[in-house]
């Protein structure tokens, strides 16, 4: 395989080839996702929900993100691996942001970092980029700010917020980000933003007028079954398939059907 780089993603946008991105937080899943040909693997702070069972993304630590990212890195041979800077690791000042990004790059071997926000974190983004670390932006619904928003509903439906989002996207491009994630905003706005910048815009709940799509892998495989937003397409119902298989195993153990004669020494 030819490895995907931040440059290949920009070329994909130029050639009109859509970019596929999924999350992964561990070795086994990352091996499958990479092997299946996904272009970008996101070690998202959604690990806080999916892996650790927290209600929000806020509790996950930088050390925990590094643990997840290093597991993913050991599995991949083609995908570009982007790692979320977790809440509290970059908001207080640009030096802290750079220190956190450096820890991710050195200790996990990740290829790039992602930060939530626009002009509020401009200096931090510039500082990280100056150190040679590629940065992916993230605008729209930014789950680290959930207590400010109050809900996980669609963002930027009003003109004022849409205007700020468009300005932030231009700022991220100008600062030197290699891509931007747009989460849960109107498709029309997302398309407009994707047209206004030359870097790839990757959407989640942002319609098909953007340059690529991202989903949480456990959601698209149907392992999580209590979460069903409109934007989520479920490709499997693994929750049911796994439950059926595991119940079968329990029955087999109870009935001494497992192990059979050929499954022992
Ligand atoms: O953490 C995450 O999974 C994300 C994606 C939803 C973009 O940030
Ligand atoms: Na995230």
Automatic annotation (TrEMBL):
Domain of life: Bacteria
UniProt xrefs under Gene3D superfamilies: Phosphoenolpyruvate-binding domains
Record's keyword terms, sorted: Cytoplasm, Magnesium, Metal-binding, Pantothenate biosynthesis, Transferase
Reaction equation(s) it catalyzes: (6R)-5,10-methylene-5,6,7,8-tetrahydrofolate + 3-methyl-2-oxobutanoate + H2O = 2-dehydropantoate + (6S)-5,6,7,8-tetrahydrofolate
Residues involved in 3-methyl-2-oxobutanoate binding: 45-46, 84, 114
Cofactor annotation comment: Binds 1 Mg(2+) ion per subunit.
Enzyme class, UniProt record, top EC level: transferase
Protein residues bound to Mg(2+): 45, 84, 116
The protein's Enzyme Commission number: 2.1.2.11
Protein's UniProt keywords contain Zinc-finger: no
Annotated active site: 183 (proton acceptor)
Coiled-coil positions: none
Cited function: Catalyzes the reversible reaction in which hydroxymethyl group from 5,10-methylenetetrahydrofolate is transferred onto alpha-ketoisovalerate to form ketopantoate.
NCBIfam families (alphabetical): panB, PRK00311.1
Similarity comment: family membership: Belongs to the PanB family.
UniProt protein name: 3-methyl-2-oxobutanoate hydroxymethyltransferase
């Amino acid at each position: 395989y030819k490895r995907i780089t931040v440059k290949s993603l920009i070329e994909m946008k130029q050639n009109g080839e859509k970019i596929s991105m999924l999350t992964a937080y561990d070795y086994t899943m990352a091996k499958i996702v990479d092997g299946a040909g996904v272009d970008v693997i996101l070690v998202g702070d959604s690990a806080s929900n999916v892996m650790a069972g927290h209600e929000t993304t806020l509790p996950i630590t930088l050390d925990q993100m590094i643990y997840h990212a290093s597991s993913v890195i050991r599995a991949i041979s083609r995908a570009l691996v982007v790692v979320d800077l977790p809440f509290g690791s970059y908001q207080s000042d640009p030096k802290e942001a750079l220190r956190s990004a450096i820890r991710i790059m050195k200790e996990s071997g990740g290829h790039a970092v992602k930060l939530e926000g626009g002009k509020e974190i401009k200096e931090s983004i510039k500082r990280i980029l100056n150190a040679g670390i590629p940065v992916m932006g993230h605008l729209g619904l930014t789950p680290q700010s959930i207590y400010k928003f109050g809900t996980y509903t669609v963002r930027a439906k009003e003109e004022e917020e849409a205007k700020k989002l468009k300005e932030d996207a231009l700022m991220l491009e100008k600062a030197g980000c290699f891509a931007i994630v747009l989460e849960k905003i109107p498709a029309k706005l997302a398309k407009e933003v994707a047209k206004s910048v030359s870097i790839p815009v990757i959407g989640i709940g942002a319609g098909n007028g953007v340059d690529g799509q991202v989903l949480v892998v456990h959601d698209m495989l149907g392992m999580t079954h209590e979460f069903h937003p409109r934007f989520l397409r479920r490709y499997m119902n693994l929750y049911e398939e796994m439950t059926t298989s595991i119940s079968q195993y329990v029955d087999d153990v109870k009935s001494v059907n497992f192990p059979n004669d050929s499954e022992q020494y």
